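My current task is to audit a protein record that another person submitted. My question to you is simply how this chain folds and whether the tokens agree. This is what I was given:
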Amino acid sequence: MLNSPITAVSTITFVPLSKRLEWATTVPSHDFVTTHNSHDYSKNMADAEEISYEQRAAHVTVISKPLAGKKLTKKVYKLVKKAAKAKQIKRGVKEVVKSLRKGAKGLCVIAGDISPVDVISHLPVLCEESDVPYIFVPSKADLGAAGQTKRPTSCSLLVGDGLEGMEEVLKEVEAARPTY
């Protein structure tokens, strides 16, 4: 078609690379558009919070099991925020995999709206082999915001032992863990 490269901006809209910034400011936030080049990230996050849990949960991938419920999701985000303040968190696939292979223990939180799913598909298996509990949450943007970063985060590993509320969340995650 055109000589310009095509980039996926949302789940159903394709935009030429040269138009990405223009579209990112004109497309409404409820279309789940990720704006990596936006300088006003806090404004985009405020718009993103208007989206309900049910709408976010409808857009998760098929491997997102166990998916945290609405209350557990809030508890997990609060725990991620506490871990980020205490510097007891590993962010991103590369850091999480490295920590798991080194034997780190804790809670692995994985975003369910990652595309392509191949980026995170190996994490649940790696967590099960390492005997680390894991849970999926519906939004990478919310996970990144809870981890106090300006970027969406695909996964986080909470490695803190003394985090307040960790035991309660771990019990609920263990209850939601699939049995095969």
Remarks:
- The longest helix spans residues 70-85.
